[in-house]
Amino acid sequence: MNSVNLVNLSKHLSFLLRHRPEAISLTLDAQGWAAVDELLSKVTAYPLTRELLDVVVETNDKQRFSFSEDGRFIRANQGHSLQNIDLALEPIVPPEILLHGTAVRFMASITATGLSKMKRHHVHLTESRAVAQSVGSRYGQPLILEIAARQMHQDGYLFYKTANNVWLVEHVPFSYIETK
After folding, report:
1. Using CB atoms within 10 A of its CB, is residue 133 exposed (0-12), middle (13-18) or buried (19+)?
2. How far, in Å, CA of 171 to CA of 150, rounded?
3. Which helix (H) or strand (E) covers residue 35, if one does?
4. Within 13 A of 8's CA, how many CA atoms are on the CB side?
5. pLDDT tens profile 63-95
6. Distance, CA of 149 to CA of 115 (rounded, Å)
């Protein structure tokens, strides 16, 4: 296990479970679940064992993956670009303010159209300033946007919260955004 780079393995699993299961002929059900045994048998880019998979799921800093209650299935918690995946999340009342990390260079587009889900199912939001800062830093000079989430909810927007504490919403109009 020491010779396997867990970050690279996690990225590979994200690619497979969120975007391209067909790359290894992996079957996902309608909620994005894949059979662990099938995943283990089809991943050839890494010497993947159940024990190593357990380590990736337990230690991933963003908690990107979940096992089913019986441990026989695995899925990515969010971030799918596959349009046929329904995570079966229930709408939930968000906190007053949620945050979104982005880069300064995207602000003109955000001002014009708000936050869009792009090729994913939802816009991703967080309660953590550190997480928003980290996400924004990936794309350039970081900018943290404050989202009036409770007001959006009161105005009819649906919010969902994943198992790893990522908040999801279809779209955030610019009128609900404040830069910080």
Report:
1. middle
2. 14
3. strand 34-35
4. 9
5. 889 899 899 999 998 777 777 777 778 899 999
6. 13
User: The domain 6-76: what is its CATH number?
Assistant: 1.10.10.970
Question: pTM (2 decimals)?
Answer: 0.68
- Give domain limits for the chain: 6-76, 98-179
Top CATH class of 98-179 equals: alpha beta
C-alpha closest to that of 171 among 90, 91, 116, 110: 116
User: Of 57, 58, 104, 92, which is closest to residue 76 (Cα–Cα)?
Assistant: 57
Contacts of 87 (CB under 8 A, 6+ apart): 31, 32, 75, 77, 78, 80, 121, 160, 162
Which band of pLDDT confidence, cut at 50, 70 and 90, is reported for residue 4? Answer: confident
23: its two tokens: 């790359």
CB count within 10 Å of CB 167 equals 23
Q: Locate 174 and state its tokens.
A: 């610019």
142 residue type, one letter: P
